[in-house]
Design brief:
The structure is a single chain. The chain is an alpha/beta fold and 485 residues long. It folds into three domains: 200 residues, Maf protein; 190 residues, Rossmann fold (3-Layer(aba) Sandwich), CATH 3.40.50; 44 residues, no CATH class. 37% of the residues lie in helices and 19% in strands. The chain has an eight-stranded mixed β-sheet, sandwiched between helices.
Length: 485
């Protein structure tokens, strides 16, 4: 059921944009301002057209001129205007004005809000489709602190007018959902796309804060973005905060490691450290410009069926505790991951792979959906400025160490494999730790569940303590009893 604010009536079914705006306008308590920069005043237009807006709209403005905008909101340190910091300044400034100009004594039941966006639509050359920050600062109770919903969008349409209209729809959906679905944030997210197709707009970052969102974990909300097809990938930093991929990856030397990390083991960290050492020796890579990313695919999260959110959080927490940046993606094939990175950086990149993963890369069945098959995929993957660092594997039957030198691929792939191997795209990690070669996450996971204490020595320092303290990955009181006995 929808939440009904004081003095409001419930509307059934999925409302039109006009109905949404009108419902807000007719609520005698909702009152606020609109500040829109960069794509017209498309959101507030929805509310003006719906009727009854004099009860709702305190002010509508668009400070397009940079000098005028700076005079109102101040100058950003980086001199940019389409940024999160700019958006937050806009929201806070407009709320302060409302608080200063409208007395609570006269309007004790008013729920103040400030909606703002700062966006750049598609350029004339149509080289950059445009992006922007959209946000809402608002109250659910008049005596309660403010709540914030901040999101970053990327336009997919190739016409400025269409982008403006889409932005207006998104803004209306945001304001409506924030007031009437705040207690169901997952539904709130889905409702942002009412009357908007996913090929029109991408939401790649969202953050909730404030008293009504105290129990909301923004990482789980970001996971919903990928799960719902609103974006292809999300990122969060070692502190567990959602971060904008475009900002974190822009012009960086990116090194990516894909895995299940369920849990993260010593072999994962050895692969990370040794591949990073090789990556930093590349003549086009600098330590200051390097960004390491631990990637988990959505298909990996679904490996056990439906996505287990707690399991996702467990993996994320362990990687963050090791100081790593985490990427959750919807890319099953590696070439899609590299293409994604290439949106933000043309600098040299690296992939750290186990030799068994490379076998999958050369399997044609993964590329049947492409008109050019495996050749098209490899053109997208290897003709970027990319190096692949290969971690060896021991054959359990023969005890032979398998590297790029003795790897067997399908006969049809031999010449293709040789081409990339001898053109310096594939590099063996030679200074690996032989003592960790036999560690596999799936084996460790079984040992944790069974209560076999050997698992603790297979994980990086401190990780076993976190698993035991928070009882992650099936570690239970029964497991504890076995260890004590």
């Amino acid at each position: 059921m929808e939440v009904t604010l004081k003095g409001d009536t419930v509307m059934e079914n999925v409302p039109s944009l006009k109905q949404k705006a009108l419902r807000i306008n007719l609520n005698e308590n909702i009152y606020g301002s609109f500040a829109e920069i960069g794509a017209g005043q498309e959101t507030v237009r929805q509310f003006f057209r719906a009727g009854g807006s004099s009860r709702t709209i305190a002010k509508s403005m668009s400070a397009y001129d940079k000098d005028f905008s700076d005079a109102i909101y101040g100058i950003e340190e980086d001199k940019r205007y389409v940024t999160e910091s700019r958006l937050r300044k806009m929201l806070s400034h407009e709320i302060d004005l409302i608080e200063n100009r409208i007395t609570r004594d006269k309007h004790p039941n008013k729920l103040f809000f400030s909606y703002a966006n700062t966006v750049a639509t598609i350029d004339f050359a149509k080289k950059y489709k445009g992006h922007g920050w959209v946000g809402l600062k608002y109250q659910i109770e008049p005596d309660q602190d403010y709540n914030d919903i901040i999101l970053h969008i990327r336009f997919k349409e190739t016409d400025a007018r269409l982008q403006q209209e889409t932005l207006g729809k998104l803004g209306t959906n945001l304001i409506y959902s924030a007031f009437y679905k705040y207690n169901e944030p997952k539904k709130l997210l889905r409702y942002l796309y009412d009357h908007i197709d996913k090929d029109q707009l991408e939401i790649d970052t969202i953050n909730f804060s404030g008293p009504v969102f105290e129990k909301v974990d923004n990482r789980l909300m970001s996971l919903q973005l990928v799960k719902n097809g609103m974006t292809d990938a999300i990122m969060f930093d070692p502190q567990g905060n959602n971060i904008l991929p475009a900002k974190a990856l822009y012009k960086k030397n990116i090194l990516a490691l894909r895995g299940s990390f369920r849990p993260v083991t010593k072999v994962n960290m050895d692969m990370y450290q040794k591949s990073l050492n090789l990556f930093l020796k590349e003549n086009k890579v600098t330590k200051e410009n390097a960004q390491v990313v631990f990637e988990i695919t959505l298909s990996n999260l679904r490996a056990q069926g439906e996505i287990d959110e707690q399991d996702f959080m467990d993996r994320a927490d362990l990687l963050c505790s090791l100081g790593q940046t985490v990427l959750i993606s919807n890319f099953q094939e590696y070439y899609k991951l590299v293409e994604y990175f290439s949106q933000y950086s043309k600098n040299r990149m690296g992939l750290a792979l186990g030799i068994n993963n490379l076998i999958d890369v050369f399997d044609e069945k993964y590329y049947r959906h492409l008109s050019g098959g495996i050749l098209e995929a490899f053109g997208k993957l290897f003709f970027k400025d990319l190096k692949v660092y290969l971690y060896p594997m021991k054959d359990l039957k023969t005890e032979t160490l398998i590297t790029s030198e003795n790897l067997k691929v399908h006969p049809r792939m031999k010449e293709l494999y040789k081409f990339f191997k001898y053109n310096g795209k594939l590099i063996d990690i030679k200074d690996f730790d032989p003592k960790v070669l036999g560690i596999f996450s799936r084996t460790v996971l079984k040992q944790i569940i069974k209560g076999d204490s050997k698992w603790e020595n297979l994980l990086p320092k401190g990780i076993s303590n976190i698993i035991k303290k928070h009882r992650l990955f099936g570690y239970s009181s029964k497991t504890l009893e076995k260890e004590v006995n």
